[in-house]
Amino acid sequence: MRPTGEILGYIKIALTEAAIARVCQEAAMLQRLSTFPVLRPYIPRIIYSSEWQGGYLLFQSSGPLRVGPVEFGPPHQQFLQTLWSVHQVEKPGCRFVEEITSRWQKIDSLLNPMLRELGERALERVRQSLSGTTVRCGIMHGDFAPWNTRLSDQKELFVFDWESAVWEAPVSWDVCHFHVQIASLLKKNWDGSSYVPRQTPSEKASLLLYLLNSIFQSYEGGSRKPVGMECRVKILQQELR
Fold this sequence. Notes:
- This protein is 43% helix and 18% strand.
- It has helices at residues 17-33, 74-85, 93-106, 113-129, 173-185, 201-219, 229-239; strands at residues 9-14, 46-52, 55-61, 88-92, 134-140, 149-151, 157-159, 166-170.
- The protein has a three-stranded antiparallel β-sheet, with helices on one face. Strands 4-5-8 form a three-stranded antiparallel β-sheet.
- A hairpin with a 2-residue loop joins strand 2 and strand 3 (55-61).
- The termini are far apart.
């Protein structure tokens, strides 16, 4: 910061192999996104990024100081629509079913019988819903949640922490993630998640795929009691009724 207290930016210093990979991923994504002028008001600007003392350093600009809204609303919709507008593709639904099925097989030994059965039911329903169809995909932030956003004076969302971003994922996944994180960490009611698209069979299938993928990622580190798992399982049960 300046001597006056004005924040110039934030520095991420990655020292472990896993952290280096995440920060490098974030730097690469921010660099790629910055090539689209329409996105620049919404994302941090890279001030400096490079290898540093055996690790990796990313220095990025700060955004507005006002914290982002906890309730999903117009600023979130505007940001996501702008993000999706720069890159969209249609992908075969069967591809996602195959990928998620493969991932679930990797954590099979960590799952209790109830969760294993839920996963099998979800995959079967998704397989039927997406047979012969495509899924609309675009850029995904990957950890779209209130604590990774700020709000400008113009009511525009500023979004940081792009280390989990993916170039092509179902466009509904960021919306699903926002509401699942709110439900799991802030104890909000999932039934109030009216913004989550689930009107068509394809949209419902995308939500189930997100939940399965989210559960897999939670177990990926080898933990048998991941944070937020109870809430995710409860939501999966609700959506399978």
